[in-house]
Specification:
- It is a single chain.
- The protein is mainly α.
- It has helices spanning 3-9, 13-19, 26-50, 58-78, 81-84, 88-94.
- Helix 3 packs across helix 4 (58-78).
């Protein structure tokens, strides 16, 4: 299997850190595990689109994935999931809400002519 296929088979954030031999602080991962993995996925997808994986050996791909995981992890060491807003629910929480439709009927409009 390739490194990217191996990563696809992992089931926890700790498995990713272990597989890529990257030390981590458990308290950071406990709070931000999904966010870290999502951000790593964004970084990997960006690298794939840019062609960064083209022509690399499996060891080089593993190193690049390790760098992406470390970068994602550092994002959440310095910030919080709420500040980063990776998920739709967090993004929607700060979107301006539309004004509700008004059911107000002015008394003037009820005059009988």
């Amino acid at each position: 299997m390739s490194v990217l296929q191996d990563l696809g088979q992992l089931s926890s954030a700790e498995d990713f850190f272990s597989y890529l031999d990257l030390p981590f602080e458990p308290t950071v991962v406990q709070v931000s595990r999904l966010h870290i993995l999502r951000r790593m996925g964004q970084y990997i997808k960006g690298s794939e689109i840019d062609g960064a994986f083209d022509g690399l050996s499996e060891e080089q791909i593993k190193t690049l994935c390790r760098e992406h995981l470390d970068q994602a992890y550092q994002d959440f060491v310095a910030s919080t999931p709420i500040q980063e807003r990776l998920f739709k629910v967090h993004k929607e929480a700060i979107e301006p809400k539309p004004e509700p439709a008004s059911n107000f009927v002015p008394l003037d409009s009820l005059k009988v002519v």
